């Protein structure tokens, strides 16, 4: 099963330019994930891998968008990530795991696996050098444009005049919102 819900949260946050109101979306998104899993089971799925949410507060898009409205206390001193988007991710993951528990009880013949993307990714935000990143590159997008986080929504990566970086494997995010192949490799290895 692919990632579900990320764009719902991204759209809401980007429209409101704040985290207010987004927590109320999380139960609906998680219920829809549960509904999708039920549909897959009806279609005959017997093993389903369900990914949790990533630490949204570490993504360059949010670090760029909310820089001017954030103070030092809004950031995790160990990672440099924004706290409130990460709290949204943790809330999503908490509700998702409860929903998966409910579905496991209803369908004991189905193997439902939770993929903990949050903690798998948090490892490289906490210790970037162990994963081939630097403290700077782990919180910046892999292109040379815009803010200190290298994210500029009016000049997205891959569209001129934005220039993609020479070594994407040294960055966690390639465009500010999506991870690089290297970051996904580390997430997959858990």
UniProtKB/TrEMBL annotation:
Highest taxon of the lineage: Eukaryota
Claim: Glycoprotein is one of the keywords in the record: yes
InterPro entries: GDSL, SGNH_hydro_sf
SUPFAM superfamilies xref list: SGNH hydrolase
A GO MF label: hydrolase activity, acting on ester bonds
Pfam families assigned: Lipase_GDSL (PF00657)
Keywords: Glycoprotein
PANTHER family per UniProt: OS05G0506800 PROTEIN (PTHR22835:SF683), ZINC FINGER FYVE DOMAIN CONTAINING PROTEIN (PTHR22835)
Family listed: Belongs to the 'GDSL' lipolytic enzyme family.
Name of protein: GDSL esterase/lipase
Organism for this UniProt entry: Sesamum angolense
Lineage, broadest ranks: Eukaryota, Viridiplantae, Streptophyta, Embryophyta, Tracheophyta
